Amino acid sequence: MHTIDNIYTNEIVIQKSRFICKIFPVNDIQNIDTILTEIKKEYKGATHYCYAYIIGNSQKYSDDKEPNGTAGIPILNVLKNKNLNNILVVVIRYFGGIKLGAGGLLRAYTKAVVECLNLANLKELTNEINLELSLKYENLNQIYTLIDESSIKEKIYDDDIILKLSIEEKKYKEIKNKLEHICINIKEK
To answer: Which of 66, 75, 118, 132 supports an S-S bond with 52, CB 3.0-4.6 Å?
Structure first.
């Protein structure tokens, strides 16, 4: 199973309709509404905002007033066929005045997604564990030798340091004993 490493955008024009495809790596379903709201602000006046996502075991699609089955399902099918997860795809359509018919819409939405995915860098999806580590200030450098600083999502400086991070499950198993010796407390979230 794979995901993408970044946000990608591509545009195609079919029969004077513009199809702008945006692909997002997403780990949390709760981020979907925020992303969709931002897209509607950025692409005001579009005729349709069709999307599909797969996050973990959850999936959803929307035809956004296109004929049933002509937009959301084709987008979702591309994601499934490419074995992708933790991904949101939104295709913004500006109607060009020429009706494409059900088959034409299905092909257009599929092509928009495939072409955008061809630009994307895929990366293997790994199981990650969210951790909260409590440690003394003097142990911070030891932590940085064990984990990549980019995996830290939040640092809280108080009497002790609290680090909230996400690391690959395999990596966590490798360094767990060392972390237990350095940290005051380890919570798996």
So the answer is: 75
